[in-house]
UniProtKB/TrEMBL annotation:
Function: Catalyzes the deacetylation of 1D-myo-inositol 2-acetamido-2-deoxy-alpha-D-glucopyranoside (GlcNAc-Ins) in the mycothiol biosynthesis pathway.
Cofactor(s) it depends on: Zn(2+)
Protein name: 1D-myo-inositol 2-acetamido-2-deoxy-alpha-D-glucopyranoside deacetylase
One Pfam family of this chain: PIG-L
Cofactor, free-text remark: Binds 1 zinc ion per subunit.
Protein family membership: Belongs to the MshB deacetylase family.
Keywords assigned by UniProt, alphabetized: Hydrolase, Metal-binding, Zinc
Gene Ontology process terms (BP): mycothiol biosynthetic process
Gene behind this protein: mshB
Residue sites binding Zn(2+) per the record: H15, D18, H147
Catalytic activity, EC: 3.5.1.103
Lineage: Bacteria, Bacillati, Actinomycetota, Actinomycetes, Kitasatosporales
Catalytic reaction equation(s): 1D-myo-inositol 2-acetamido-2-deoxy-alpha-D-glucopyranoside + H2O = 1D-myo-inositol 2-amino-2-deoxy-alpha-D-glucopyranoside + acetate
Length: 286
């Protein structure tokens, strides 16, 4: 216990690739600063759509195993070594997009018992004792069942862990300020002719977009932009990176943000934070 670094950050994500897209710069920055960065990913993303034609044969469990390898490569690029799959790899499977019959699969994460899944996460919380936890908002950022469930499980696990002896100091949700996203899409229009993508996504395709005043923290990861891009490239089945943009399997270009944004939902803090550990006195934390 005494060997843990002073500052400890836990991120809870639904699928391999979500960590790099949402928090890659933040993870790389805190890892470089010596904080313990722990990632818990809830599923292996077995229902993801595969981009490269040469990997299109990968589906189901084979795709899950491949994506686990991508996750290892991505987190290595971020300098993050503590990566866990909720309940162990393969415990919960990808639920697929909302409304599909996949959501009814009894083994899928959407069908998981929230308390039981949160119990697995609480075990991790009690082990690494994070001061800060990052996850999605109650709509999972954009409505994917696994992202909504990750939110529910993360928030429940914070309560369970508090009852078992560790209070997470601060909880943040991943966010993107509307004005920043709109400006980035405007710039993207100029870049688009030079990119391998024909069309642009839109502001509505970006998870977690809210009015600017709801943003309480901005983490400048500009110094770690290359690590974030490398991590996203490692998820080659899911992401194509080009210049300062990327696309998912829909081939629609969207901006790659190296400053990442958060909304504080539990714990001390005030608007304008540039450090997720601000106000926690983590230098003396035990
Ligand atoms: Zn996802």
């Amino acid at each position: 216990m005494t060997e843990l670094p002073d500052r400890r950050l836990l991120l809870v994500h639904a699928h391999p690739d979500d960590e790099s897209i949402n928090n890659g710069a933040t993870m790389a920055r805190y890892a470089a600063e010596g904080a313990l960065v722990t990632l818990v990913t809830c599923t292996l993303g077995e229902r993801g759509e595969v981009i490269p034609p040469e990997l299109a044969h990968l589906t189901g469990a084979a795709l899950g195993q491949h994506r686990l390898g991508e996750l290892r490569d991505a987190t290595r690029a971020l300098g993050v070594g503590d990566v866990r799959l909720l309940g162990g790899a393969g415990r919960y499977s990808d639920s697929g997009m909302m409304g599909l019959a996949d959501n009814d699969d009894p083994g899928c994460f959407w069908q998981a018992d929230v308390d039981q899944a949160a119990g697995h996460l609480a075990d991790v919380i009690l082990e690494v004792r994070p001061q800060v936890l990052v996850t999605y908002d109650d709509n999972g950022g954009y409505g994917h069942p696994d992202h909504i469930q990750a939110h529910r499980v993360a928030m429940r696990a914070v309560d369970l862990a508090a009852g078992r002896g560790h209070q997470v100091g601060k909880v943040y949700w991943n966010r993107a300020p509307r004005s920043v996203v709109e400006a980035a899409f405007a710039r993207l229009q100029d870049e688009l002719p030079g990119l391998p993508f024909d069309k642009s996504a839109s502001v509505d395709d970006v998870p977690g977009v809210v009015d600017d005043e709801r943003i309480t923290a901005a983490i400048d990861g500009g110094a770690h932009a290359a690590a974030k891009a490398a991590a996203m490239r490692a998820h080659a089945t899911q992401i194509e990176v080009a210049g300062s943009c990327f696309a998912l399997s829909n081939e629609l270009a969207q901006p790659l943000f190296t400053t990442e944004y958060y909304e504080l939902v539990r714990g001390p803090g005030q608007p304008g934070e540039t450090d997720l550990f601000a106000g926690l006195g983590t230098g003396e934390a035990s």
